[in-house]
UniProtKB/TrEMBL annotation:
It comes from Stackebrandtia nassauensis (strain DSM 44728 / CIP 108903 / NRRL B-16338 / NBRC 102104 / LLR-40K-21). InterPro entries: Beta_hexosaminidase_sua/sub, GH, Glyco_hydro_20_cat, Hex-like_dom2, HEX_bac_N. Residues 90-309 form the Glycoside hydrolase family 20 catalytic domain. GO terms for cellular component: membrane. It comes from the Bacteria. Residues 28-87 form the Beta-hexosaminidase bacterial type N-terminal domain. GO terms for molecular function: beta-N-acetylhexosaminidase activity. Keywords: Glycosidase, Hydrolase, Signal. Belongs to the glycosyl hydrolase 20 family. This is Glycoside hydrolase, family 20, catalytic core. One of its GO terms (biological process) is glycosaminoglycan metabolic process. Pfam families: Glyco_hydro_20, Glyco_hydro_20b.
Length: 591
């Protein structure tokens, strides 16, 4: 008789008992609907001669059949006799992909992602949009961005529906409007048209002024976008309104407070959409900084609280706050209240009983290869808070800050872990992520194991970075490095050696999955860039590293690898955002 630990199931079921040897694998299952089970739940009972599947609803039937299919694939002759009882911790388990920071996926890439979401029992999907939907009257904004079209959305919606996934609209409606406000036709909509200072850097205008005219403008965008989806749910963003209270709304903010000005505009946006019959979501970061306003939020909407760092070690917290805490305070963010974990972000909504989803992050942005210690810790912390608060859903967020250079496959380990946690924390908190990836996602390879190792390299540079990896920041000549510490030459030499070895691992063998060559190429390009970053840190520390000529040649070759890998996964629009960074880096070797 096999041991339960010998079964490879994703996600792991919450209850599993193996009782002996079962029937031939080809035995037909008898299916029964059962109202005594939990929503989306199922029971799979395999005896020595029979297979019985009890399920609560369509989702339970889908997940029960998927579990049986995983067993059939592992046991081609005879199944084990066993009993599985399973249902989710969270009714909604979502994934949000940023398609506005450069990388707009091809249809083949979206197909790959939807297949992974289906495997992971993720039942909700959002594409985060700022300027990358082809709005009818706004070609000036999206012309060079290779945007998603209405036909793309309808195609994706149909594919998601087939996979049991709700595809929902997502259009930021308040902050993050820099791609619009840089154009003359939209500049007068800005809160502060000339831009603003944030943490020591000048930034272009990003925030719409909180006026009724701007609310109507944003509502028109949402009303054009939503009909392309079968879902009536929409996320309108409204996060990080950095300039609010500094320009058009300064007088109002001085008179009644910036938080209340924000709240009033949120009502202008949310209430009409609720009247349209939509289920509206908004990011919770601004209200988290003004918890006294939580009881006045629009009724009928849902807040999505987000935070993307794992709870920091107290000593590392102290170092970061000592070095850069004042810069965050100047930006209106008190890191001392955030580095301890997710609980503070959710507290205003839980205390006021306001509908809430919680949003951890994949930790892949500004990293090239991921930050897995941070991502795994953040996800477990967030799910713990969500479970204790009885929240409605989890939305795993996958951002593309800095030009979205990290390839899609870098996201697969944290996405797999976060989705499994969202299904059942107790059964999956110690999930062997590399093993399940190499079994289900990258069969016939050790790519899952290589991804796991690559995703921990950022912790070995000698530096402590916030919301980023030193390996990527080393490639950005004008990077706003939020971290402390000096490069560690000995550790970095080990990082370089490990990257070389892991590139060889990624490129060994031939995997039994369709995009094997694409995955090899994109991981090689990302790892080569990270190695270049490690070399730059070694040079910064005065340690042995390639000379300038060798660095110039390596960067040219690596840049071309990145370009080819990008075009195999994403549309050309937006590629220049990161390529411009690499071009600026190349110029540093000319002097």
């Amino acid at each position: 008789m096999i041991a339960p630990t010998e079964l490879v199931l994703l996600p792991r079921p919450r209850h599993l008992d193996v009782t002996g040897d079962g029937p031939p694998t080809t035995t037909e299952a008898v299916e029964h609907q059962a109202t005594d089970l939990e929503p989306q739940g199922f029971e799979l009972h395999i005896s020595d001669t029979t297979i019985n599947l009890r399920y609560r609803d369509d989702a339970g039937l889908r997940y029960g059949r998927a579990t049986l299919a995983q067993l059939r694939a592992q046991f081609p002759d005879r199944l084990p006799a066993l009993s599985i009882k399973d249902w989710p911790d969270f009714a909604t388990r979502g994934y949000m992909l940023d398609v506005s920071r450069g990388r707009v996926p091809t249809r083949d890439t979206l197909e790959r992602i939807v297949g992974l979401l289906e495997l992971l029992r993720v039942n909700h999907f959002q594409l985060y949009t700022e300027h990358t939907f082809a709005y009818t009257a706004h070609e000036t904004v999206w012309r060079d961005a290779s945007p998603m079209t209405p036909d793309d959305i309808r195609w994706l919606d149909e594919r998601c529906t087939e996979a049991g996934i709700e595809l929902a609209a997502n259009q930021n409606c308040f902050g993050h409007f820099e791609h619009w406000l840089k154009h003359d036709a939209y500049r007068d909509r800005a809160e502060l048209a000339e831009g603003f200072e944030l943490m020591g850097r000048h930034r272009p205008a990003t925030t719409l002024a909180p006026t009724q005219d701007n609310a109507d403008f944003a509502l028109d965008l949402v009303r054009e976008l939503v009909p392309n989806f079968s879902s009536r749910r929409v996320n309108i963003g409204c996060d990080e309104t950095w300039e609010l209270g500094r320009g058009v709304s300064k007088a109002a903010a001085d008179a009644k407070g910036k938080g209340r000005v924000y709240l009033e505009h949120l009502h202008r946006l949310v209430n009409p959409l609720i009247a349209d019959g939509l289920d509206v979501q908004f990011w919770g970061d601004i209200i988290a900084n003004h918890p006294e306003l939580a009881t006045e939020l629009p009724q009928g909407a849902t807040a999505v609280a987000w935070w993307y760092e794992a709870p920091w070690d107290p000593e590392e917290q102290e170092r970061l706050l000592w070095e850069v805490g004042d810069r965050f305070l100047d930006a209106g963010v008190d890191l001392s209240k955030k580095l301890g974990g997710f609980a503070g972000e959710a507290a205003p909504f839980l205390e006021s009983s306001y509908p809430l989803w919680v949003a951890p992050g994949t930790g892949t942005w500004r990293s090239l290869l991921g930050r897995l210690r941070t991502a795994y810790g953040n996800m477990l912390d967030t799910v713990n808070v969500g479970l204790s608060g009885g929240v409605e859903g989890v939305l795993i967020t996958d951002w593309g800050d800095g030009g979205h250079p990290q390839p899609p496959s870098v996201t697969f380990p944290p996405l797999a872990y976060g989705a499994a946690l969202s299904w059942c924390r107790d059964a999956n908190h110690d999930l062997n992520v590399p093993a399940v990836l190499d079994h289900f996602v990258f069969p016939g390879t050790n790519i899952g194991a290589a991804l796991e190792a690559l995703g921990h390299l950022n912790d070995r540079t000698g530096q402590i970075a916030f919301n980023s990896s030193p390996l990527q920041l080393a490639l950005e000549p004008n990077a706003h490095h939020v971290g402390v510490g000096d490069p560690d030459p000995k550790a970095l030499a080990g990082v370089v050696d490990d990257i070389d070895a892991l590139i060889a691992t990624v490129n060994s063998g031939s995997g039994a999955f369709g995009d094997h060559e694409i995955v090899q190429n994109e991981l090689t390009a990302a790892a080569r860039q990270a190695r270049h970053g490690a070399w730059r840190l070694l040079r910064q520390a005065g340690a042995p590293a390639p000379d300038t000529a060798a660095m110039r040649a390596d960067l040219a070759e690596t840049t071309e690898l990145h370009r080819r890998a990008w075009l195999s996964r994403a549309r050309p629009g937006g590629m220049e955002t990161w390529m411009t960074t690499l071009t600026a880096l190349a110029k540093t070797y000319d002097s």
